[in-house]
Amino acid sequence: MTHAISVHDRYAEADIKAFYEAGFWRPEGLSALLDGQAEARGGKVFVSDGTSELTYADLRDQALALAGGLAGLGVGHGDRVAVQLPNWTEFFAVAAAVSRLGAVLVPIMPIYRAEEVGYVLRHSGAKAAVTCREFKGFDHLAMFTALREDCPDLAAIVAVRGDGDVRLDDLYRPGAELGPAPSPDDGFLIVYTSGTTARPKGCFHTLNTVRASAAAIARSVGYGEDDVQFGPSPVTHSTGLATSFLLPLLTGAASHLMEAWDPAEAWQRIAKYGCTAAVTATPFLQMLMGAYDPDRHDAASLRLWVCAGSPIPGSVVRRAGEQFAGCRVLSLYGRSENFLTTMCTLDDAPDRSATSDGSAIAGASVTIVDELGEEVPRGTQGDITYRGPSHMLEYYRDPEQTAALFTADGRSRSGDLGVMDADGYVRVTGRLKDIVIRGGLNISARELEELLVEHPRVAAVAVVGMPDERLGERVCAYVVPAGEPPSLADLTDYLRSKDVATPKLPERLELLDELPMTATGKVRKHVLRDDVRRKVTPK
C-alpha cells in the first residue's frame, strides 16, 4: 500500500471532535449503513437503470459476495480499484464491495480513453480495474488490456456484462470470510479532476468527507425516503457518485440511472419511475426544457432540480418555474476537492438561485480572499475559499499541490473567482483555473495545448472556452500556423490519434499571425475569450 495521509494529518483533533458531535461525520461505515437500510426496507428497489434493478437487500448481499471475490483477487485494505462503467446498477455493487474491503474506489468516466485512463491507472497504482466489455461501440476491455503492459500494479481486469479473463458474474462469493469493516475515516475515494495543469489531480476522500456533502444536500432540500433520484450525471463523476448513490442511500430513497443522455427519453424515464429530484450540470435541465412538450410529457412527479457545475442563467430558473410549476430549481456550487461549497435551499427566496450560487451550509465556512489569502470586503471579487467537514485529505501523491491549496489560516483556495453579498450569498464570476467547462465537464486547456503544439503545422496555440447556450462552453483553439494552416478537422483527427476524449476536442479554430502576449511572455487569454465571445454571440 502506498502511504497516504490520514484524517488526523489533515484535520485538527478539535475539528474532528466537533464534526462528530454535530453529526456532520458519523461513526458507521458504508457497509453498516447499507446493512441498516437492508434491514429496514430490504425489498424496496434502491437502484434501477432501465434494464436491471437492485433492492436494498440485493445490494447488500451482492456487495458482500463481491467483496469476497475481489479479496480472492488480492484486493485488500488501502488498495485502489479503478472502475470505468456507464450508469449501470453494477457500479453500486462494486463501489459497496470495494468499500467493505477498506479498498479505495477510483472512478473513471466512460468517455475517457487510453491517455486519461492510463494516467489514472498508473498514478493511483490501481491493483484491479472493473470495466464494461463494450459501450457505445467502444471496446473498453481491449483498452484496459492494452494499457496493462504499462501498469505494473494492475493485477486483475474484471469485465461487466460481457466475457473477459475475469467476469464480474463469476466473482460473487457468498459467505466469504471478510476482515473487520473499515473506519469511515479511512480512504474511500480518489476522484480525478482536471484543473490548471495538464494532468488530472486525484482528490483523496474518506467516506465521511463525501457523506458530509450528501447529507447537507439532503437537509437543504428536505430529501426523504419517498424521493426517487433521477441520475443522468455519470456515477463515475463526483456529482453522480454523491447524489445518485450516497444521497438516496442515506435517506432510504430510490435512484434511477440513465446510461446515455437523451432529453426525450429522459421525460419517459422520469414519468415511468416517478422521479422527484435531480442534481446535474445546468445543460441537462436546459436540454430537458427544450424537449418538453406539455401534451406528451408528464412533469408532475418532479419537485426539485439542483443545477451544479456552472452558474445558472436567471432566465433558465424563471423558464423552469413557468414550465414545471411544481418543480423548484436550486443552484449549487462545488468542486471535487470538497464536493459542496455553497447552495440554495428550499428555505431561500426563489430568486436566489437566479442571482447567486447559494451560501455556505451548516458546518462549513466560505470566504472570498485576495492573492495574500486575506478576506476581501463584501461585494469585492476574489478567490472563493472553503473550510469544513467535506474537504478531501489531499491530492493523492502530490504534497506540493496539496500544500499550495491552503491559505496561511488553513482555508482551501478554489481558484474560482466570486463575489459574496451582504447576506453571505456567493456568485461565481469567473475562474483562475485555465479550464473550459463543457456541459459540466472540466477540460484542461493546457492538456490540449501541449498536444496540439506538437502538430507539425502548429507553431503556437492557445485554447479557450467559447460561450455556448446549450453546453455552457465549447473548446476554441487559437493557432499560429507553421507553414500551411491546419484545418479544424486536421487538429481533431490528430487529437483523436492521441486518444483524447471526444467532448474535449476543439469545435472552433481561429488562425492568428501571433498570439496576444504580456510583457512577461504569457498569453493574454482574456483577449482571446473576448474575441471569440464577440464572434459567436448573436448580434
So, CATH architecture of the domain at 30-38 and 55-182? 3-Layer(aba) Sandwich
Overall strand count: 25
Write down the CATH topology of the domain at 30-38 and 55-182: Rossmann fold
Q: Major β-sheet, in short?
A: 8 strands, mixed
Q: Into which percentage range does the β-strand content fall?
A: 15-25%
Shape: globular
Mean pLDDT, to the nearest integer, reads 93
CATH class of the domain at 30-38 and 55-182: Alpha Beta
Q: Spans of 5+ residues with little confidence (pLDDT < 50)?
A: none
Structural class call reads alpha/beta
Helix content: 25-40%
In DSSP terms (H or I, runs of 4 or more residues), the helix count works out at 17
Q: What strand line-up does the widest sheet have?
A: 2-1-11-10-12-13-14-15
Terminal residue distance: 58 Å
Radius of gyration: 23 Å
Structural notes for this entry:
- The chain is α/β, with parallel strands linked by helices.
- 50% of the residues are buried.
- Helix 8 packs across helix 9 and helix 10 packs across helix 11.
- Among the domains are: 137 residues, Rossmann fold, CATH 3.40.50.980; 101 residues, GMP Synthetase, Chain A, domain 3 (2-Layer Sandwich).
- It is built from 17 helices and 25 strands.
- An eight-stranded mixed beta sheet has the order 2-1-11-10-12-13-14-15, sandwiched between helices.
- The N and C termini lie far apart (58 Å).
List keywords for this structure.
single chain, 539 residues, alpha/beta, Rossmann fold, GMP Synthetase, Chain A, domain 3, 8-stranded mixed beta sheet, 5-stranded parallel beta sheet
